[in-house]
Specification:
Helix content is 60%, strand content 4%. It has six helices and two strands, in the order αααααββα. It has helices at residues 11-31, 36-40, 50-70, 81-87, 96-116, 139-165; strands at 122-124, 136-138. Strands 1-2 form a two-stranded antiparallel ribbon.
């Protein structure tokens, strides 16, 4: 696991970085040593695959960091179900190495925002059925959501990896 200790950071930022690093470690540990074909497998009743989960977490995190910086969400319209379905798949023209590299790049950018951005700064959320009209979200709340999203999907990944070859990420 990467050491994110930075004595110049206040405890809130240091704690956020530490928690994010821990969940990212477990997610990436889950895909270590897999081939692209294994990363595309859907060995449970779910349609989720490991490569798709890493890609989804990366794209979702990037969408939220765009929101923190500009108030706009990356990734387009959530109603584009075909695009959403592709987000959860490791496509034939993609490799696990590529989506892991994308995730590391996005994570580094998020970490820099956690270190430097005003955590109280907020923006109005975009129109969506799951947001109340006029609802706002602070950077602090966004980073907590990214942490929860990462942990949520790390659990999915652990189950899928265990179904593939018996490896357990956290056990």
């Amino acid at each position: 696991m990467t050491d994110t200790t930075d004595t110049a950071l206040d405890p809130e930022r240091a704690s956020l970085l530490e928690a994010l690093a821990q969940q990212r470690y477990f997610l990436l540990h889950t895909v270590e040593g897999l081939t692209d074909d294994q990363a595309r497998l859907t060995p449970t009743v779910s349609e989720l695959c490991l490569g798709g989960l890493v890609k989804h977490v990366a794209l979702t995190e990037r969408g939220w960091t765009d929101f923190v910086e500009s108030g706009a969400m990356a990734g387009g319209d959530d109603a584009d179900y075909a695009a959403r379905e592709r987000e959860f798949r490791l496509l034939e023209d993609e490799t696990l190495e590529q989506v892991v590299a994308l995730y590391r790049e996005v994570a580094a950018h998020t970490d820099e925002l956690v270190r430097t951005h005003d955590l109280s700064a907020d923006h109005e959320l975009p129109p969506a059925p799951w947001f109340r009209p006029g609802e706002r979200r602070s950077a602090r709340r966004v980073f907590a959501h990214v942490l929860a999203e990462t942990a949520h999907h790390t659990g999915h990944a652990d189950i899928i990896r265990e179904a593939i070859d018996g490896q357990k990420s956290m056990g």
